[in-house]
User: Fold this.
Amino acid sequence: MKTTNYLEIEGRSAGYFGLLALLGVLVLIGLGAAYYMEHNGHWVTGMDNEIVWGMPHVFAVFLIVAASGALNVASIGTVFGKPMYKPLGRLSALLAMALLIGGLVILVLDLGRPDRLIVAMTQYNFKSIFAWNIFLYTGFLAVTAIYIWMMMERKMHRYYTRAGYVAFIWRLILTTGTGSIFGFLVARDAYDSALLPPMFIIMSFAFGLAIFLLVSMAAYRWTRRPLGDAVLFRLKNLLGVFIAAVLYFVLVYHLTNLYITGRHGIEKFILAGPTVYTPLFWIGQILMGGLLPLVILYSGLGKSRAWIGIASLLVILGGFCQLYVIIIGGQAYPLQMFPGMEVISSSFADAQPYHPYTPSIYEFLLGIGGAALSMLIVTIGIRVLRFLPTSLADADVVPQQGAGEAA
Amino acid sequence: MTENDKSTPSPGRRKFLGTTAAAVAVAGFSVVSGVRLVSLAEAKPADQPVSNKKRWGMLVDTSKCSSGCDACVTACNTENGLYTTDHPKTDAQWIRKIDLRNKATGWTVSLPMLCQHCANPPCVDVCPTGASFKRPDGIVLVDKHICIGCRYCMMACPYKARSFIHEALDQQVEYAPRGKGTVESCTFCVQRVDEVGKRRDPACVEACNAEGHKAMYFGDLKDANSEISQQLKKYQSKEIRADLNLDTGVRYRGI
Amino acid sequence: MKYSIVLKALFVVALFGSATAGAENRVPVPHPAAGKGEHCVLPTAEMRRNHMKYILHQRKETMHEGIRTPQFSLKGCIHCHAVQGDDGKPVSIKSPKHFCNSCHTYAAVHIDCFECHASTPTETVEAKRLFQPIKLYDSKIEAPAGNK
Assistant:
């Protein structure tokens, strides 16, 4: 294998500035939406006292989960010692940081009191997994930044593997923490499961890799740098494995709940209910986000870059549906306070067969703004620092004995 | 004001008649039988912190609670300044009435639902900043000074007892501060419980007694001689979602 | 604590500004209305400088420990320092005449106390407003046909 050369992208084309402008505008619109919601209060959103976490949380959790998954490509190179993945490590780590920042910004801007962010940073209740996540998220940014530094700085390169291990372990703990936000909720039938943290980890593998594939394909195409089939096909096969693993976890989760009689209510609500969550589950999550991309990736279509891109996009959309079903579907099903009884009247929505939720445009725009911020960070990052290898052509990345890497 | 209770003598309770004159000023209120006497022995000096020697609790006797009566809800709203906004869908409710029907037998029951003031409250466990907390005397509160409005406590509460303030308010009462972007719930009328020299029952309990239903008891669960302890010892009662083992401060009879 | 640093910083800026700006351009120094009674709960100079510390300390004790001594109670401040408006009733924080506003506007120190706390003694708030308790609104929604 030849030495890998990294170089900033030129970033002078009209297309590049057009992309920057587009992302910048989306970020500004997102900020405007956040301001509107904060100024008026949350009544202008679709959220209420029943659906307390809405569309912004779907976006935020998706980006945060995908962030830790995006780092996986770097981990495979460092921790699992696959030389072919090493040239991808820098982009992988940059993408991870960018996605996390985008997700966190959404989360913070949706707080009832975002002005009190300093309180969240200075007062902790260590029994709360949320408080731990504040450390895990900020720590992830620091660990990943150091990891990138070790990858980029020749003098620090001897610590590169160690940094990679730390980052890998940190990201596993981080996604465990994110899954535990829901897994630790004893009150609600949809959550309260130790299966959620590992399921979130495997989801992160799939979502993060799908985003990584799309970003790298776009970056190499738009900069006209060579991207060989060897790398791409390896990654798309890996994506297939992750998709299958997500499906497996979803299957086990629902089988468990279907076995527990007390959980039949929530299962019926999600799997065969009257609401949008049922089609979102079957068509969005299972068909679009699982089965279709599997067929594409493992059939002859998987040889085509366009189809790999489509499969990645489907995984992202399916993953979004999955989080919508988990986060909002889980709240839409009313709390079961009185087993064997039905609520016939209540002033506080207890009598609803399910809690309705229609996201407002502002929540959606805030989410889009956060995602755009992630992409903006990547777009600027590869312009100012040497993240992208000049070539990922097969001849440059196919591993040989004694292959190394140099900056 | 302090109400006198002339009709239901109970052993071990100290009579405190000195302040009844003031109570009588509210005509027709203090004389309602069943409105409970509150003794000075239960009151705490203003400069003393609350202690875990007490645990405030409530017992709801659902057989005395009538469907269609929402006196407790109205009293709570008046006491704590919960007023309806232009957007009722997101209005806060600290206490609500729920009517239930047994799916198998058709038996119906009506009860008030409020913060259950758990000994092991999930809302306190999950709160990232410690804004959700339990006082030593068992009252679960939100410190709005450090609440960031993340609503994780609302996700965690098994009773849907909490409300988020969805818009700016400007008609708060001075003893029940509440404002945009924070979460709130029943405080057991902590301002009445702490009232210097003359602890009073929460507004809902007072209203229920005034209506003549007397379905709610409030008192110190750790005082074996308190009326609520006596009632709990004598008759069966249940926690809602007892399976979660939260040791709720609010218990129900007849469900 | 935080406010005091901000206040000090602004004070320095204000001093600097007053030295350079012409006298006719100055914002008039506020003269907040005196409270009821002989004197404040501590000497006026001490309260002017450190009222935020006392209030902050009291807030923790009251909130978490139920200590309700009157000396530094915010409620006490509001009662004693209520400023009458043209209608003879205490003005709320929305009025520039409000006791807290008179200085805080001058010093440009933002306080969010009254986003939650009542800025006037409660009796008058009660008297002013037509109280509307929350009505039991119909919370039932129709389930689509065939589902319950």
Q: What stands out?
A: The first helix of chain C runs from residue 2 to 20.
